[in-house]
Amino acid sequence: MDYVTLNNGVKMPKLGYGVYQTPPEETERCVLEAIETGYRSIDTAQAYGNEEGVGNALKKCGLPREEFFITTKVWITNAGYEKAKASIEESLKKLQTDYIDLLLIHQPFGDYYGTYRAMEEAYDEGKVRAIGVSNFYPDRYLDIFHFSRIKPAVNQVETHVFQQQKTAKEYMKKNGTQIMSWGPFAEGKNDYFNNPVLKKIGEKYGKSVAQTALRFLLQSDVVLIPKSTHKNRMEENFNIFDFSLTDEEMKEIEALDTGNSLFFSHYDPATVEWFMSLV
């Protein structure tokens, strides 16, 4: 496994396993199969409703806790210092662990300043090894970066071949924050798995479109957490360290970037109203 060193010296696997939209009743099985495959980084969130399944798998797998890198996120209904502080304790309980490796603010809504203060406190107390944000666009990211005492180690944002976050990456790199991808396959949008560029390049190496796309992100210094509930796909997604794309191939895939989200925009008032309806 390859690792990236975060801005506080903590090492994080470049490839992990995500459990977004994994049903709570299937999470334990899926995470155990991911662990069997070789994954040691697991990404969950309070909003996913499956932290317990991740915790059960960690307990049952038989491996020591220090072999794993566990990420979870504070949801907007827990925004603010007091609520966030309580929710962090609840996440620790559900995950059945004394510490979280990476804790993120899930969305830049509500009192995220208060949330971040609670996260900084948890970091100081050793309950969290690294803290950061998720879905923070460059403007909000720069806001929290300059506001915070402990600078964000990670910003997890929609990142795939059609939305490569080139501008956001510039600011994160400048300020020492690691970009982490959610939705590396864009949930199949834009006929993702039939893309002719990815197909052509993948065939050269005997790799699938998915593996080619993940390799591109890996070589673009993006941390990955692909998700699948099928073990054969978990294995396929894990098998991306035995080939490298050429500079020319990287440029071909870079040209697929549209610079736009395939899901939602925080600059869209209707989207913001929808998030607010959840609070």
UniProtKB/TrEMBL annotation:
Pfam families: Aldo_ket_red. Substrate binds at residue 106. Residues 20-257 form the NADP-dependent oxidoreductase domain. The active site is at residue 48. Keywords: NADP, Oxidoreductase. The record marks 73 as: Lowers pKa of active site Tyr. GO terms for molecular function: oxidoreductase activity, acting on the CH-OH group of donors, NAD or NADP as acceptor. InterPro entries: AKR, Aldo/ket_reductase_CS, NAD(P)_OxRdtase_dom_sf, NADP_OxRdtase_dom. CDD domains: AKR_AKR5F1. Belongs to the aldo/keto reductase family. This is Aldo/keto reductase. It comes from Mediterraneibacter catenae.
